[in-house]
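Before the break, one more example. Copy the sequence into your notebook; we will annotate it together after we see the structure.
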Amino acid sequence: MTIKNRCFSIILITICLVGFFSCKVKKNVTSVSAIVKTDTTEIKLNEDARKEFEYLFIEGLKQRTLENFDDAIKIFSRCLELDSRSSVALYEIANIHVAKGDFQSSMFLLEKAVSLNPENQYYRLLLVKVYQQNKLFEKAASEYATLFKIVPNNLDYQFYQAAMLAMAGKNDLALELYNSLEKKMGLSEHIAVGKQQIYIQIGNKPAAYNEIEKLISAFPSISKYYGLLADMYLADKNRDKALENYNKILGNNPNDGFVHLSIANYYLDENDSVKSYEHIKLAFKNFELELETKAQMYILLTQPGATKISDEHQLELLHILINTHIDDERPRALLVDFLLSKKQTEEARKQLKLVLDMKKDNYMYWERLLLIDNDLLDWQAISDDSNKALEYFSDQPLIYILKSVGLLQQKKYEELLAVLDSGIVHAKKDPKVLSQLYTYQAEAFYNLKRFTEAFDIFEKVVELDPENYMAMNNYAYYLSLKGERLGIAEKLSAKVIQANPDNATYLDTYAWVFFMKKDYKLAKFYMEIALSKSTEDNAVLVEHYGDILFYLDDRENAMIQWNKSLKMGNESKILKKKIAEKKYIETKEN
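Here is what the structure looks like once it is written out:
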């Protein structure tokens, strides 16, 4: 197991270049007025056309700034209709395509812009980025060569040219250029590491080692060069030499957190968990080592399939992180994960509330708290915590969904309807979200005995989300209880059963629809399947089974089932009346 080491791992040149390009291009794109003034390629326009071009160009920049990219492209395209040789208009359209991730379209536009205005550095710098994204490294190297001719005092262009040549597999040319640069600039980390990577790629290990050893000889106090050397030895399975160089760093700086993590990895690979843990603790206690690096190590230690550490050590590391980074909520958030994994849900909720005291503007923390409330079946907490969450995230539909669950469970139907009015507004026409919110709305209407409104909303739910089986099941059941539209209820319930053939609750509804249609044999058939599929004792299913048996003239067994349901905890007054009067009592909703 290894951890990405910021100081010692060999950083790929491509990553450096992407960062360089993004900063460089963004910085210069904003100086549009300067670029326009240097755009000498345009067709000579008459006064009216020139004014229209300038107006459109400024409007295009405005729309691009507002990220109305499609509108901006249309406007800049109109500029090109007025002046087909406007390199700056081509550049702006290409820049938008780059922002949208379309590097193919941007490449053709930039190549044309460069051909029209070959001295413009900004066009070529963006073109280099596009070539990189399209993996045309040799072309990117050629562009850097041209840029160096335009600005011969900028040796960075030659360095990047060498890097691109290496990416293109032109190793001899890249080494030749690196060596030329080294003669001009002297020994440099970037050049030495660039050469080292090429030597590793072509299998010349002695030369690769030599490049890093030259850096160490020239700069013996810089720890990370020992780290680079140690990483190379480790990759070559020369573990003793690797440890020797790690220890050299500790000799210079015993508090170097990165080195402690590297040595911890070393001992993990040696299956020496005791020594590894000692160095992990030292790294975690280091105030200078950033939390992100420590968290990465912690996650590597605890992810599935990783080398396991004991729960006691895991907890100790988390508390070290909390104490070392006292103003950062994230270590405590990791503690919440640990507690949840150990089924310590109440304590996890307590710690998560401390996290939220520190970071109230993080939506994911609120969502997790509400889901924990739901897992604990703490309906009042869901209501209270969702109210607090809505103070910061009033546009998040899931908060309204979870709040609705809490209110529904508490039978606060009027309050639920008011919450749903707001939630539906923020659902942003998402069919799945709307379907769920409308389902709760229909449930509220039904429980308030506003049956017509409830059934109208259920119809809307079925239309919005044909796979909302819970809503379809409830709708069918409620129709059957009312004795209304039983044909529709049967069709809905049949669709639910087809998709969920092993769901006892859904099978109960299907049986009950047949019961209400007076098809008692089919009702008995599906109820017995429901009972066989039920994973736990269900008093309601047993009561329904007794009802069906009563109408099949098996009254003795009907009484047995009713009494069984009562013993299972069914407190229904109607059930008690059935038993007392020894007959079925209708439960139709009014």
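The longest helix spans residues 47-65. The domain at 467-581 is CATH 1.25.40.10 (Serine Threonine Protein Phosphatase 5, Tetratricopeptide repeat). Try to locate both features in your own notes.
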